[in-house]
Amino acid sequence: MKKFLINKKNKRSNTSIDLDITSLLDVLSIILVFLLFSYNPSDLKLDLVTNLKLAESLSKKHTTFAPVIQINKELDIFYESKLIGNINDEETVKKIEKNLKKDFEKIKIDETLKGSKSKNIVLNLVIDQSVASKHVNQIMTTTALCGFEKFKFIVGPK
Hints:
35% of the residues lie in helices and 17% in strands. By secondary structure, it is of the alpha/beta class. Helix 3 links the parallel strand 5 (122-127) and strand 6. Helix 2 (90-114) packs across helix 3.
């Protein structure tokens, strides 16, 4: 029988290193859950005014940033969360027109600088479900005359 000489340098060890990764997996799962709950695909931040009950929808689409007009059940109009007045008051309608025209021009300039067409300019409407359709039509007509011809209605989940 032949004996083989084994060089100590070439000798490989068969020992393996055991590494416990349980705690690492716990930390990764916590981070994953945190990121999933904090993720919001919409850039719209909305502060609802008082006395406002949203209509319900099954839609899952998110809206984008745009000026916001809110009308509560007392027919008070809020522009960017600031009370402007009542929809039945002619002065309120004039204030809304003034604000919308000014903001439309700003948005139009910004869109032009970005290279987008002004057809993408949208207005977000948040209207209480008890508001009559004649008032909705009135505010939509007023805002369309100011340049905002596309609307997104903000509704609540069903």
